[in-house]
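Progress against Task 2.4 (sequence-to-structure conversion) is shown through the following example record, which the project officer requested during the mid-term review.
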Amino acid sequence: MSHLNRELIEQQLSALPLAQYGWIETAELEFSERIRRVCEQECPMYGKTGACPPAVGTVEECRARCLSYPHALYLTTLTEVSDIANLDETLATRAPHEAVTREALAILKPHVKDVMALSTEACAICEHCAYPGAPCRHPELMFPCVESHGIIVTALAEKEGIDFYGGNLVTWFSL
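Structure tokens generated for the chain above:
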């Protein structure tokens, strides 16, 4: 991607309610089977949608797919909640982040011939997911969760200086 394109993209991104964003080489991403095990053991959506493991493939397949792209754009948004321990309230704030991710993807699409987005979704586009009996009805709208691909978000955050504010501020992350 040329410098000129990045300038134009960043100009458009600046209109979005982003907390932080930046460019990385995908080779900087760290992957771990341990992250996938957390999905399997702790997430109630595991095995229930096409955006979740095992439907997204093995960690090695996800790693290969991610590394087939030379560069990535990460972005974060912030949302305040009254009680971060209230999972229902916290998860309810995910939709605005997904909308911003869709806007960022729309900004990128004219500049790159092939783009993949990972975000926070276990996917809630359809009332009833076609998985596992049929392929996804809307793969262009679905953003698998970053962690579903085995990506260690905390390692990337540390490397890139991404702030996780704590308290009752939720930091949502997309790649």
